[in-house]
Inverse folding.
């Protein structure tokens, strides 16, 4: 299992890199579960990481297909190895499918792939259930799926779903050819519960920060998280392989 650490600046990216993060994820925590950083900030993060790690980009919850395609293309062309999009507020299946397809096209135009984000607390997000997002993502050309929590001031992932439910969801996604990631206010203690379930990536922000999610990335905390992922359950597919379909590894295009 690979470790994704969300950062808001080039300085935090360097701290996460030095701590051993496998993927550096650009995200502004003050802007919500999937808050996007600005393109100039994203360029600084990519430059700080250089060719040493892949960089992913959170683009927020998008409901307009044209905007989703444009944003996905812009961040992909700026160096994103994958782009992540959520769909809170979308009420129709036709709109959901159109937005996922548009974001996927935009990502592909920039030489990368889309990760469709589902929320365990879907009702809190006014979003479709995770199973619906998974099926729509597979049908619309996404490369992967992430199960996260929408509210960051509320219960963590395992207070919304059980291990057995999550295992089945992950297996369904992988059977459809999607790589899988989990996040949602996970702590270092939660990693022992996550590891046996079969996800390819685990994402953190608050657990890697001094002072919580809105604090600052700590190299020492990232090191401890990475160490917790080593051992008999260490596994599955390395991040470079997960991103191979997009034509990106740690090297900026």
């Amino acid at each position: 299992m690979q470790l994704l650490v969300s950062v808001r600046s080039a300085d935090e990216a360097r701290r996460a890199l030095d701590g051993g993060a496998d993927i550096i994820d650009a995200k502004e925590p003050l802007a919500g579960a999937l808050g996007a950083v600005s393109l100039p900030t994203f360029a600084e993060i990519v430059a700080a990481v250089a060719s040493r790690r892949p960089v992913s980009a959170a683009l927020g919850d998008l409901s307009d297909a044209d905007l989703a395609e444009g944003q996905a293309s812009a961040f992909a062309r700026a160096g994103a190895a994958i782009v992540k999009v959520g769909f809170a507020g979308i009420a129709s299946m036709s709109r959901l499918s159109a937005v996922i397809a548009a974001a996927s096209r935009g990502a592909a135009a920039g030489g990368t792939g889309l990760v469709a984000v589902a929320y365990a607390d879907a009702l809190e997000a006014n979003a479709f259930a995770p199973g619906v997002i998974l099926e729509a993502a597979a049908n619309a050309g996404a490369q992967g799926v992430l199960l996260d929590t929408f509210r960051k001031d509320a219960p963590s992932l395992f207070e919304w779903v059980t291990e057995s439910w999550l295992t089945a969801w992950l297996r369904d996604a992988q059977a459809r050819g999607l790589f899988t990631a989990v996040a949602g206010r996970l702590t270092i203690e939660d990693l022992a519960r996550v590891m046996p379930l079969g996800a390819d990536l685990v994402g953190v922000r608050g657990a890697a920060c001094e002072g919580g999610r809105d604090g600052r990335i700590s190299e020492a905390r990232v090191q401890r998280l990475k160490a917790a992922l080593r051992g008999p359950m260490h596994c599955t597919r390395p991040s470079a392989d997960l991103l191979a379909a997009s034509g990106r590894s740690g090297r900026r295009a």
